[in-house]
Amino acid sequence: VFLNKAYENENSNVNTNTNADNNNKAVLHTMRMLHVLLSVL
């Protein structure tokens, strides 16, 4: 229960920056996938 509460608090804090974080994650993910594809070739 304590972990669940801490997790909820973490989520509520994160939600303020969700859009910016998601954009950054999407870019990083894309770059990572490109890097993996290039290294495979």
TrEMBL record:
Where does the record place the region Disordered? 1-21
Enumerate composition-biased segments (Low complexity): 9-21
Origin species? Trachipleistophora hominis (Microsporidian parasite)
Q: Which domain of life is it from?
A: Eukaryota
> What is this protein identified as?
Uncharacterized protein
